[in-house]
Amino acid sequence: MALELTARDRSMLDGEQGPSAAAAMKILVAFSNAVGAGCLLDIAGAHIDGCLYHGKAGLDFVERLVEGGGRVQVPTTLNVGSFDLIHPGMVKMPAAEEVPARRLMKAHVELGCQATFTCAPYQTRFRPGFGEQIAWGESNAIVFANSVIGARTNRYGDFIDLCCAMTGRAPAWGLHLSENRRGRILFELAVPDPEPNDSLFVGVGLFIGQASGDRIPVIAGLPQPRDEDQLKALGAAAATTGAVALFHAVGITPEASTLYEAFQGYAAEETIRITRADIDHALAKLSSVPDGAPLAAVSLGTPHFSHDEWMRLLPMLRDVAPGRRIPIYVNTGRATLTRLQEEGALAGMEAFGLIPVADTCTYVTSILERLDGVVMTNSGKWAHYAPGNIGVSVAFADMKDCIRSAAVGHVVRGAP
Amino acid sequence: MIWSTETGAVERFGTFQLAGEAEGQALVFSQPLSFWGGIDAETGDIIDHSHPGLSQNVAGKILVMPSGRGSSSSSSVLAEAIRRGTAPAGILLERPDPILAVGAIVAEFLYDIRMPLVVCDIAGVASGDRIAVGLGADGRAIVSIGSLPD
């Protein structure tokens, strides 16, 4: 299929709107041709996963767009960087690495991107609406936007998310189009009266991520979640063990009020039952240490903690009162942190070992004081990536168990 | 397919995802290789333990495989490898790949280095063949494949 461009697309491509827009459109056109899109479509917003410093080419690209006078054409949020700009000194990095890492974050802001530095842009004021076309990077954000909100994005990544933002356009293909959003594979949760606890949602996410391949999963029998943060945890886990960009949960997510709607009237290509043993097995793989192992730290907030999650954590901290021996890191967006500070919600919390982290995440950069011990987390995503990224041992558990463990200094699970 | 009588090379046409000229020895894989997690951009070494090409080096070769694979972070790794001079001299694919296309175009934009990325029939190409990628008059890629002398 030949790619059809509008007059405005052409004018960008021909450089009439500056060298940066021309470069972005040229890359977008090549990408669109490669995926076989017939045309481009307008997007309402973008989320850029380009602020983690991985090498000179990434920074050179953004610098060149800045030099060319480029500006993003739609509201554009930024994913986490390598640095906590709100808490200087939090990240321990040699100066030679710190300078380009900081510059990469600032250069994106100079293109007109919002300094959100969060992997949960869907829980900021830039949250998209149902049916909106967007171009997002960051796997957990993509799956949340598509599944929980019903906004429409493909899995955009390196350079191309920014090219969409710089042009306000995206290729009309994949999950932007209704017919490609139908379910393909059915997962039946075969757990009688499942408790809607956090681990269940993480376990289901891990399982469907691994078993779906490139087919859109539909989950039947999932209990109503307490809040959207449980679906956030499910999606983040599914996008960790697999490449899930969209899931439907029948009776829960907006494009799946019924099984029929989730499959758009087609039959499932395959049906897989998820048993209690499947979930337990998926969760067990997240922990490399037994109960009783001495604890070095707790890390919560991957993806970034929402205000609601903080409202669950803070009373728990006051109740369990873990003391400050074991640091409890909580990754969150700077806007959420500002709101909490304005509310006075964090006053005195450092006495319980609480260390809020903004703009980045404890598993992508050097924050943890000790890497030789066990870190406990309630995040399937953190548990999966942290051993490889920063070399820690991990114990996965519900938030309550994480806090109780911090209080006693070793891993305890199965809190009453 | 056109047989060139002078050199004994086989020529076939392809489509450019990024246009350019290159020459080098073919490095052929039937299994796609992800640049991210698969190639060390500092050296060009293949580091994917699950790939049959493990510990071979792609620098200066004409990499031939059915398609690209894996994470979109491969765009960055390819661009970085092109910048460092550790990338293949060119890549031949059977199917177009958006991730590698972005990496190649970004490298051209930033560093003015054109690593041709060509979609063409790769049947019969063997590792060690001499490959030359040229620009056809009509914008098509001309891929000439010379077998190793017996």
Automatic annotation (TrEMBL), chain A:
A Pfam family this chain is assigned to: AcnX
Keyword set includes Iron: yes
Domain Phosphomevalonate dehydratase large subunit-like, first and last residues per copy: 3-404
Molecular-function GO terms, alphabetical: lyase activity
Sorted UniProt keywords: Iron, Lyase
PANTHER family named in the record: DUF521 DOMAIN PROTEIN (AFU_ORTHOLOGUE AFUA_6G00490) (PTHR36577:SF3)
The protein's name in its UniProt record: Aconitase subunit 1
UniProtKB/TrEMBL annotation, chain B:
UniProt entry keywords in alphabetical sequence: Lyase
Record-given protein name: Phosphomevalonate dehydratase small subunit-like domain-containing protein
Pfam families (UniProt xref): AcnX_swivel_put
Xref: InterPro entries: PMDh-S-like, PMDh-S-like_dom
Molecular-function GO term, any one: lyase activity
Lineage: Bacteria, Pseudomonadati, Pseudomonadota, Alphaproteobacteria, Hyphomicrobiales
Translocase keyword on record: no
Superkingdom of source: Bacteria
Organism expressing this protein natively: Mesorhizobium kowhaii
Presence of keyword Lyase: yes
Domain Phosphomevalonate dehydratase small subunit-like: 33-114
PANTHER family cross-referenced by the UniProt entry: DUF521 DOMAIN PROTEIN (AFU_ORTHOLOGUE AFUA_6G00490)
